[in-house]
Each structure stands twice: as C-alpha cells, then as structure tokens.
Amino acid sequence: MPGSSFGKAFTLTTFGESHGVALGAVVDGCPPGLVLRESDIQTDLDRRRPGRSKYTTGRQESDQVRINSGVFEDLTTGTPIGLTIENTDARSRDYSNIKDLYRPSHADYSYDQKYGIRDYRGGGRASARETTMRVAAGAIAKKYLSVRHGTRIRACVSQVGDLRAKTFDWDAVEGNLFFCPDVALVEPIAELIDRLREAGDSTGASVTVMADKVPAGLGEPVFDKLDAEIARALMSINAVKGVEIGEGFGVAAMVGSVHRDEMDESGFQSNRAGGILGGISTGEPIIARMALKPTSSIAKTGQTRTRSGEVVDVSTTGRHDPCVGLRAPPIAEAMMALVLMDHWLRQAAQNSGEVSLIDRSR
Amino acid sequence: MPGSSFGKAFTLTTFGESHGVALGAVVDGCPPGLVLRESDIQTDLDRRRPGRSKYTTGRQESDQVRINSGVFEDLTTGTPIGLTIENTDARSRDYSNIKDLYRPSHADYSYDQKYGIRDYRGGGRASARETTMRVAAGAIAKKYLSVRHGTRIRACVSQVGDLRAKTFDWDAVEGNLFFCPDVALVEPIAELIDRLREAGDSTGASVTVMADKVPAGLGEPVFDKLDAEIARALMSINAVKGVEIGEGFGVAAMVGSVHRDEMDESGFQSNRAGGILGGISTGEPIIARMALKPTSSIAKTGQTRTRSGEVVDVSTTGRHDPCVGLRAPPIAEAMMALVLMDHWLRQAAQNSGEVSLIDRSR
Amino acid sequence: MPGSSFGKAFTLTTFGESHGVALGAVVDGCPPGLVLRESDIQTDLDRRRPGRSKYTTGRQESDQVRINSGVFEDLTTGTPIGLTIENTDARSRDYSNIKDLYRPSHADYSYDQKYGIRDYRGGGRASARETTMRVAAGAIAKKYLSVRHGTRIRACVSQVGDLRAKTFDWDAVEGNLFFCPDVALVEPIAELIDRLREAGDSTGASVTVMADKVPAGLGEPVFDKLDAEIARALMSINAVKGVEIGEGFGVAAMVGSVHRDEMDESGFQSNRAGGILGGISTGEPIIARMALKPTSSIAKTGQTRTRSGEVVDVSTTGRHDPCVGLRAPPIAEAMMALVLMDHWLRQAAQNSGEVSLIDRSR
Amino acid sequence: MPGSSFGKAFTLTTFGESHGVALGAVVDGCPPGLVLRESDIQTDLDRRRPGRSKYTTGRQESDQVRINSGVFEDLTTGTPIGLTIENTDARSRDYSNIKDLYRPSHADYSYDQKYGIRDYRGGGRASARETTMRVAAGAIAKKYLSVRHGTRIRACVSQVGDLRAKTFDWDAVEGNLFFCPDVALVEPIAELIDRLREAGDSTGASVTVMADKVPAGLGEPVFDKLDAEIARALMSINAVKGVEIGEGFGVAAMVGSVHRDEMDESGFQSNRAGGILGGISTGEPIIARMALKPTSSIAKTGQTRTRSGEVVDVSTTGRHDPCVGLRAPPIAEAMMALVLMDHWLRQAAQNSGEVSLIDRSR
C-alpha cells in the first residue's frame, strides 16, 4: 500500500526520482480564494536549492516550479493544485559502479529487499531531491496559515557535529548560509565543513522548528495527536533519526512539579510542553527538534556487499553535501506547515464555531 | 476529522473514557486462521494493569477483555474483531473541584479549547486508561507476527529520572516491577518512587523497545517510512515527548564514516540505523526509544486558571502513578506491533512474491 | 485491507456477526454539543427491528442499544461514540446442514473463496443483522442534520415484485407495515407476501429515499461526487443490486432539452437531476432509488454444491423475511444520512465561510 | 476534504482543468516488475480521444501522455507513476457569455455554491476532459490484471436514446465508431446523432461493462463490497445517473427461486448476480451497466439565472458531443479496472495464501 500521500484534509501526493523526467505533486483540499503565484512557492524552493554555496552539493538545478491547475486568475479555486519541476541536471553519467552494490547507510539494500528492482541513478526515489515537493506544498500551507491566522513557521540549524547553538537569534538565521541562529557558530561550521570535505567525510546535525500563533485546539485525541503527527512528519524527512517536542528527552530526568507549565491570568507561565497538551495545541508556540544523520555518500572508503553477495569496497565520489542537515530547515518548516494546515481544516470540519449546538460557556 | 483509528491494512479504532461505561475497540484486517483466545490478549493487559504493586496507581481494574466478534471456534475469520472492557472501578466521586479548572500539564485546557465541552471525570478520553485498547490490539498483532515470522517485540524502562540502565539484560525485565533491564537499578528506582510519592511529586522516564526477526522490506518510501510510522505510534502514547530510532539524537554529533553500518558476507556489521534504511526495514533488529514526561497529577500544589479566568491553586490527590513510564513498556510493545503488522500486510499487498512479473534476481 | 469503516470526517466502524456475542460500532467525528440519548437511536432501531409483524422474520431481538462513550450528561463531547447491542436470540440450533454447503445466492461461496473459513451461523458477518449498526449511527447523523439544517430524510418501499407505488404520500409511509407510500398497495402486498410464504418463495423490491433541506455545496468533484458516495452507500446494503439518482436509468432515453432543469428567479424549475449537479448538491431535494433482490433463504428446494464438490439439494427453513426490501427503508435513510453528514463536515473543513480570503460575490 | 483520489491499495490522484496548463495523475501502489511503456497507456487514451469522428466533439487534442516517474528501463519500480498530458487545444476564446451564468444541467451553480469561485473556461474541473487521467491509470491496471490473471475488461454502448442493443457481439464493438455490440444499430445511431446535432439537442445513453476471469474473493464485506465500489466508481463518471450489477433493477420484480444462481459440479449454472455475492467476487464474469444523461451543452435555447439573479436565455454553441455516452466505454473500463486492481491488492494484503496459519480444507 502506497506511502506517497500526506495529510487527510489538506493532502499532498508526490512522485518523482532524482534522475527521472520530472518531479511533481498534487495538493488537494486547499481552500478557495487564496492568492497564489508560482513565485510564492519558488521562494522556499530557492532556500532549499542545492548549489547555493560551496558548502552544499554542486548539482545545478533551477528547481523551477510550474502550477498546472487549481489556480485561476491568481486565486486558488478549491480544486487540486498540480505542481511539476523538470529535472534538468540529471546527468547521464555512468552508474555501473553502484548499480549492483549496496552503499552503506543508503536505501539501496532495503529497496532491493522490498521491490526487487530499483532506479539506482542518484538514489532514485530515496534521493533528498524528493523533498522539493514537500517544500513546494509546504509553501502553500505556510502562506495560507500566515494570511488566515498570522502563523509564522521558522526553522534553524541548532547543532552541527559537536557545535551547538548557544543563543537563538531568529533574525540571524536567514543571514547566513547555514540557517544558524548563533552567529558565533557560523565560522566554526564553515571550517568543520571544509575539514570534512577534505577528509571525505560528513557530519550529522540537528534542526529546530518553531511555529508561532498557532490556533489552540488543533490535533486529535489518541492516535492523531498533534505531536504524533509532527513526529511522523519530521521523521519522514530523509536522514532524520530523532524527534522531540518541547523539552523532549529532557523530560525523562525532570520532576512533575518542575515540568508542568503553570497558568496565571495571562495564560501559561512557561512552555515546556512545546505548545501541545494531550495532543492538542494550546496556542503557545509549537517547538520541535529533529536530528539528522551524517550524509551517507562520502569519499572515505567503506566496506559493503554486492547483490550477488561479494564483499567490496565503496567510495562515493560526486556532488554531495558534507552535511545534509544544512539544507533541512526549509523542509522542516514545510512539514510543520503541512501538519498544522491539515489539522486546521480537520478542526474546522468538526468544531467550526457555528456547528456547535450548545452554549460553550455554560 | 477523527483521530481514533490507527493503521491502514491492520486497523485499530478505539473508544472510551476513563469513567465511562466501557472501553472498546475494533480490530479490522486481521488475516483469517490465527488461533486467538481472550487469554492471548489478557496476558498483556495484565502486564499493563494498574494496581500490580504499590508503585503504581491504586485504582483497581480487572481489565477483563471480551471478544465480541471476528473469532469463530478459536480462529480469526478475517472479519472485524470487536473488543470491550467494562469500567468497574469508575468510582462516582466528587469532581466538582476540578470540573471548572485546568490542571497544569493535563489536557483540560486544550480539550476545552477544542471542543468547548469535556468529560472531566478521571481525564475522560485523555486518560492513560485509553491505552488498554492499544495493548489489547497489539497483543493480536504480536501473536500473528510471532507465529508467522518469529518476530519478538520487547520493551523495558531504560531510565527513571536520573537513573539510567547501564546493562541491558532482557531476561531481567519481566522479573521486576519496573520492567528494568538493569537489576542494579531496581532498588534505587523503588527508593526514588517512594521519595517522590512522599514529596507529592513525580518523575519522567524513558523506555526502549526492540523488535527482532522483522522481515526486511517493511515501510513505504517518502511519507510512510517505517521510522516515521513508529515515531507517530510512540509519540501518540500519553506523556511521550521524544522518539529516537537507532542512534537517535546521537547521530547529530557523529561523522558519516563512523555512523554508517558497513556490510560483509554475513550482512550488516553494526546496527546504528536501528534496523531501518530509507524508511524500510533491513531485517536487523528495530530499536526505538521514547521519553515520557513526569505524571501531571501530583499532590504538590501548583497554580492554574479556572474556565472563567480566576487564578487558583490546585493539588491532585487520588490514585496516581508517580511515574507513568513504569507502566509504559507493554504499551510501547503494542504500538510497535501495530506498526509492523500494518506494514507487513501493506507489503504483502504490493510486493507478495507471487505478484511479481519479473525475475527479481536478474 | 479492511472494509468495515464508512466515511472520512464522520466515520462509522462496525463489528459483529449474526450469532456472535454482540454487535457494535464506533462513530467518530461527531461534533460536540449535540443532545443525544439512547432513545434517539432506539427509535430507528425499532423501525428496522425484525418481528414487528407476521410479514417479517420471526427472530426476536430487542436490539437494545447501549452508548458506551462519547456522551457526557446527554451531550456529545466530540470523542468517539461507542455503541453495542447484545445478541440475545442467537439460538444455538444445529447448523450442520448448511455448514459445508454453499446456499445459492448467499455469501457462503464467496466468503469461503476469500477467507477459507467462515462463521456459518445465521450468515455470520454477511447477515442483514449487520445493518443494525448502520441504523444506529445513521440516527445520530439524522438528528444532527435535522437540528443543524432542518434536513429531513425519509424512505419508502416503492415496489414489491410487480406492485409499484402509483402515488407518493409520504405521510402514509409510517402508517403501514410495509413503509408503503401508496395505501392502495398495502393489501395487495400483504396478499403477495402471504402467497410467497406459502409457496416457500420470496420477492425483490425497490426503495426510494429522499432528503429535503440539504445544504448546497456538498460533495467533492471527481471521485467523491455526492451521487457516487450515495451509490456506494446504498449498494453496500445487503441485497441491493441497482442504484439511481433523480431520473436514473430513464435519462438514457431522454433528450437534453427535456432533461435539463432550467432556472428562474426562484431557482430550479424541475429536479430531474435529483438534487445533484457535477457531483455537488444544489439545495434541491436529493432523490435516490435502489433495487433489492429477493431473499435468498427460501424453503423451495434448489441445487447447490458442498465444499467438497458434491451436488446437493438445499431448502432453507427457519425465520426468514419473504421480502428483505420491506425492512430496508430505515437502512436506506441511515446510509443517506451518513453520506450527507460526512460531506457536511468535509465541506466545513475546506469551505467554511470564514475561511475564505476573498469576497465571494465579486 | 479532498475528493481527487481513488483507491486504497492502488491509488489514483488526479489534477487538471479543461483549459488549464496540463492534466496529470499520480498512480501509487503499482507492483514492481510490470513492463510499462507510454504506448500501453496511449492506446486507451486514443480510444477515448475526442475528434475521432464527426459524431463527437471537434476539439482537437492529441492527449499525448508522458510518464514522469516510477518506471525504469520499461519496468515499474513500485514507486509512484507520475503522468501528465499538456493541454494543447485550450483555445483562449471569449468566455464572457457564460462567466456569470449557470448553464442548465452543468456544474456551474453547484461549484459556485461550494467554492464561491470557479474556472469557468470549458467547465474547468467538471469537464469530461478530467476523465483522460482515469483512462490513463486504468490502462495500467488493465495491463497488470491481464498479465497476472488473464482478466479482460470490455465495455460497449448498449443503448442510445430509444435504440437498445438486441444482440451482444463483443467482437463488433471496436469495429464501429459507437462502441456498439449490435451492428444493426450502427446506422440508426448515426442517423439519430445527425438529427440531434441538427436540432441542437442531445441524447442520453447506457453503457455495459464486463470483466472476465476475475479472481474469486475480491471485495470486502460490509461497506467496501465489490459492487458498492463499482457503483461508486461508475457513478463518479461525469453524467452517470444510474448503476446496476447483474440483473440490476430487474431483481425487484423477480422471485427468489428464479433469481438465485444454482450450482452444479462445474460451478454456477447462471450469473444473475453479475459475478458478486455478499459483496465478494465469485469468479463469474462481473457485469455492470450505467446510464448517462444527455449532454448538457446544447444549442437549443434554455432558461437560466445569472450569479446576480437575473433570468436569461442560454444556448451553448461550440464543440460538443451530442451524446457523451458514445465516448464513455473506455472510461467505464478504466474505472472497473481500478476497482478490481485495488481489491486484488487489498485481497493480497489480508489473504495471500501463504499468510494463512490453518489448513483451509479442514
């Protein structure tokens, strides 16, 4: 059963391989009347785009999005929005060296176990290139939430290897190539990346994503809790291996009297819960963090197996990011936006004020 | 839109409040021919049951499950399995003290924002009592996976407050009241719980869950990656605030040449990936960890608001666990089992060997 | 993959066999604040109940529904509503005569082909008894739509064998045992049923269902058109073999200039479309018709096969309706209500007035 | 909530308007290893294509499909298959005459009630042009079912206005422009169409679709019965107002002893059930029929309303089919194929032989 769709009320369905003809998506369920132009989407695609600096992969893709449907005279009509991006830099290089072996930490082995066949060029469907369509759809959700609720969704790189952000200056994030909120860290990160590239190695990273002005009441009890949905959304991004909400793993060592967010007249006095209680948003900022593993494609030689069972050495040359985490913030924002948008519409379905038959203040 | 269902091919839909008439579930999609008796389910329910020791809540519930359908002469028939548990110890005490205020760290405030009405007795639908039905359905999935594939799913408490397991002796886990894999920790945990109860406080914890002998190939690329589904499943458990797969957050500080699991003739030489690559199982053990916040219901006085905006002090007396994490392992196992079972059937749909039209070895 | 759930925003999931322990359902997504008591549901269950007259099966079931959750102090809370009905008249008679053979026109053969195992007692899951839960859930939807929009959903038996209703007096429908809108037909139907029972035979029938005061705008373009959803809903009722909307099959012989519903100041001048254009409700009454095959369980001897391939004669004795269509109107109403309710909530998700960012009149 | 997706295990999601940039689809869940080329899809698109003869619309569209993903070296890989067709003949004519009025029997009024905005050019999303993507996806399903099971799915026009097919010669169907199984009817239909075109009018029609060699066991009890799914699939096609399975509405007037299909050693002796019992396929041919209303776009003047409430006359000139039913057979085949394919995979999920733990013959 397929896994290329996301969301129940605001749904995203994607297709496309790294070196296929084109990537594309269908965004269904968008409310009508939203002003939407290709440029609204392109902005975020450009933030994610490879080749922005020498610190990311050298692949040159313009990632130019085309809106095929669902928008009429610059307004969404409520019908599905079809998006496509042509693959222009899918060089037809020689893949015979990786065609029959399982690159360590890649999806080669597991895809082969699953399907018995795979498009090995550039990682095929498992390529990070797949995330363009998340970013494109996320841009629509971000715009809607922003216009409708004033919601602002931002993400930053809070850790690269051992380097951890000590200050969180959101205004600094877009001003450096690493989406880093701590300007003191920019230089050290640059040096680390240079050093890793030289060594033919890579590093992990961690990304923080925050959403302000989220309406209270989003999320469904039990299985579709808002934090569960965010966890799924972020963990579905390539390379992510951990997700936290609010205090995250820190809660294991806390006592209840310290952890709980007390209230006064003006509302919550703290936000250790990360904006979610019982799986439902409280109106406080939603805060999540995710960890990304180091890039798997590295020049340093490693050992692996071929399809026929032979043990061989492998070294991945080519255009690769020494740290995939550095391009992840726009993707994290997009996934957060998709979850919030979906749950806003789900909330409207069941609980739009007018639907209630009772006086809620009784 | 509703959130009380889990899974696409093996689906669980639950209902029930802490102090309602009964809890129940529908398990749909179970393959026919599995030997299933109420006792198969009861075993896990008893492991989760409150009142097993003085370290957990004193609520007395027999949690006796009844199979209403879908089983004929002790064999599943392929039709939906209806389960119910009557609420027998839902004391009709006086709830007037919490009826109109928002207990800190509880779902009271967010439910009110969402629905404008709530069953405040014992936390209603937000009560941990809801997890009985996860455990019941999980027991069916566990049995199927075990009979079919030899899959074994186990969970343990790996951290309570500052106390962390240093050794992992799975054989010790069921031998102590805390599902603790490190026997040296049993006494300290007991002391910590006693101390907290006396202080009217509570503590967080962390739980590790592992699945052996999972078929390779489970999980769907992109949004329904196996790790994304596990993350959602575990994060949907009450009080969970963080989820990790394999090395988890540790990957942020690792380099690629160390992190990647290399292969030799016999397969993977390590399992830092936690049994999942590209969102698809590799056949290696699946390892996940989750963090649970400290129990919110504590005797220590805290500040909060009433529905009408008045600031008041609140102290929760009654039958509460000082550490909800201590009862979480059976729930974590159940959620892992539900994910694996669902994805096994999803895999069978698209990729059952016989369906393939090509020679997979070519 | 399971098929026991219905609806996306207002979902019904059912379980239960004819001779199992109990039947049950989970209704998820109901808006909070609806006044709901067991008696609201019981009324429709009693209309469907067997044994109301000598013209239906003699099985004695009180079909007493119990609300297990989701309602607090007589108001829905927004959480899932769990319903159960105990099977009280599931006589443990001897089924050895049908256990190994395929009764003609029953689901015996196809279930066996599908699952390889079946609960043969009383038809198991394929029994019409399964429809009790449709009626119960439909009663909730009917009440909500009635309170919220003034929607009224009614059904009647418009044909029994060769006897067709010539007048449609909706006020007469509940006044006779056959839900017949043409009082002149009541006596002939009674005679036909008596004759058939004596002959050990049965007859088909056709049922008309109508919904007034349905909001315009319900239904989704393309696959989830409102008429497509109604067709699926009605065709999923046991024994139904045909569904029509508005003029139905009559349209094949009509010309466009006659068929189209023209408009004037006051709206549509006719309603040949049956209240739906382009798959979306127009606000005109929705009109559907369905045909039910004759009861398969008849005393008249027929030929069939056993599981082992032997050809045998079969004659079904016992408590059976000579015309299942006579009890179908409450079921048709329920399915119509479930579709409309689901699509009302779906419409609220995407198109609730407040969500729009544009002036709709521009 | 969106309605542009079809199927659960084999899913189709479409986008596109009549006069937009492009139409497209994502087909997710296709098993790997199927030989697939664009020509496999193009064949059916060409059968549906307008402008094949003077009896259909004069719109000139090459409807050239492009496969963007999911196929590697002519084999499906198991990942989503992205399809697009560019709109090349979307003439930018003047639509000011229909922009603000509701053409009778069109979706204009209902879309406006739903969304408050619409792409009025050529009917937008409500155009029959949307069905290209159904045909494209259906071609993949048809090929798979044919290779895997030998399933053959065919459709024909069995009635046009008062002209009904009296003989069913499937071999004749593809040999005439009207997909007519009764060659004696070809000339009369041609005359009728000419007459209608001259009169500026249109006619309804009815289409029969049949599937041979369908595996037994497909379809899910209760809500997702195979006939319910077929009913929804066919009724979701533009202009369809009625659907029948097997004897269809004829069953209302039949007695049980005549209707039931008896069995002997070789299987069923008749097939009045249309290949489905209890919602599950029996292995007999599946037979369905659907009725299509006359084309709404006719030259004959009719009365309607504008958005502002003014009553006006309307006459639709332009390139329209006098009988939309004449192009419907490839669409009916496609929808039948999508349902059967989806249910074949769903059946494989739960009931693949190897999954069973019991001896099915016991």
Quick tags:
homotetramer, 26% helix, 362 residues, 8 helices, 5-stranded antiparallel β-sheet, alpha+beta
What can you tell me about this protein's structure?
4 copies of one chain form a homotetramer. Chain A is of the alpha+beta class. Helix content of chain A is 26%, strand content 21%. Chain A has helices at 38-48, 108-115, 131-149, 170-173, 186-199, 226-235, 256-259, 329-351; strands at 5-6, 11-15, 22-28, 65-67, 71-72, 75-76, 81-86, 152-160, 163-164, 205-212, 240-245, 263-264, 267-268, 276-277, 280-281, 286-292, 302-305, 311-314. In chain A, the strands form 6 sheets. A 5-stranded antiparallel beta sheet of chain A has the order 1-2-3-7-4, covered by helices on one side. In chain A, strand 12 (263-264) and strand 13 (267-268) form a beta hairpin. In chain A, helix 3 packs across helix 8 and helix 6 packs antiparallel against helix 8. The model of chain A has no long low-confidence stretch (mean pLDDT 93).
Task: Please specify the SSE layout and strand pairing.
4 copies of one chain form a homotetramer.
Chain A: E1 5-6, E2 11-15, E3 22-28, H1 38-48, E4 65-67, E5 71-72, E6 75-76, E7 81-86, H2 108-115, H3 131-149, E8 152-160, E9 163-164, H4 170-173, H5 186-199, E10 205-212, H6 226-235, E11 240-245, H7 256-259, E12 263-264, E13 267-268, E14 276-277, E15 280-281, E16 286-292, E17 302-305, E18 311-314, H8 329-351
Antiparallel strand pairs in A: 1-2, 2-3, 3-7, 4-7, 5-6, 8-9, 8-10, 10-16, 11-16, 12-13, 14-15, 17-18
Order of helices and strands of chain A: EEEHEEEEHHEEHHEHEHEEEEEEEH
Q: What characteristic shape of chain A results from the CA principal axes?
A: globular
**Main sheet of chain A?**
5 strands, antiparallel
Instruction: Report the portion of residues of chain A in β strands.
Output: 15-25%
Strand order, biggest sheet of chain A? Answer: 1-2-3-7-4
Helix content of chain A: 25-40%
Give me the oligomer status.
homotetramer
Mean pLDDT of chain A: 93
Spans of chain A of 5+ residues with little confidence (pLDDT < 50)? none
Q: How many β-strand stretches of chain A?
A: 18
Largest interface: C-D, 119 and 118 residues
Radius of gyration of chain A: 21 Å
First CA to last CA of chain A: what distance? 46 Å
Q: Count up the helices of chain A.
A: 8
Structural class of chain A: alpha+beta
